Model the fold of this input.
Amino acid sequence: MHVGGSSCSRVLLCLASPSTASRASVQRKFAVGVVGRVGLYGYFAISRTRRVWRGCGLPSQWGWCPDGNGTLGCDTRSVVDLRRSEPEPLPGPPRVARKHGLADELLAELAPLLAEDGIDVDRLEALDLATLQAAMSRAVERRNLALFTPVGPAREIAAATLGLVVESILGDDTVLAAAILDQVQPESHDNSVATVAGCIGMSLGLLDHWMTGQAPQAPGALAANTRLPDGHWVGGRSATDILVLAGKGRAFRSLDKLIASQGSHRLLPGGALALAAAVKAWATLTGDPVREVIAGNIK
Done:
């Protein structure tokens, strides 16, 4: 899992390359409109590009400012241990970068979903911004739901990965936990590895169900007894936010805000850490072995 420097920033706005004057106008309207409503969540969730910063889920063509000084690029230092020797730094503010060609890529990605609303991506100039934005919001919401809600083989590999990470954290093998998370990829067409979106979505969805009584097998006092492990952690700040939201059943539906405020590079380990805390509380309350709790409920 790769992380940026002490004040990681995210790029939110990407303008189109002007292939023609009219097309450029439509693309700019499209790109700016997306940022105005969908923001980082939409960008993160709908990308299929191969040039992606592992662990973060953000395409490198969108840029990344790890030190907050305006320098684009990716910090490729790997996290070798989920435990930190000092508190996790606060996320840095987002930065804006101009990236050519992104509007075309986003339009192609969402074209089938926009078509369901009767919108032809080759005739966007006939639409006003409000109509386009409303259709975009609906399309991105459906795409996000699919990416963050793994099913079938995708869910099985996400569950196996999260189970191993949780067991490693609770077994105090945080180096192994980091190594497992390092294998999580932005996407996997053959479901051979877990994906960032799949692991994040699954961890938050499980916590929502466990903490609010929607899972009948979960202990009734689970939310009140769940505490993060002592010490400083990679993703510790996001894990704290996740547990607060999950106690209200709102972690999954707050994905856009969590990614915008923390970054998916922190949300991935944060979700696993919060899940580990809940599993530990579950095992303590019921007397069940940790492995049984993991095998029976992270699925």
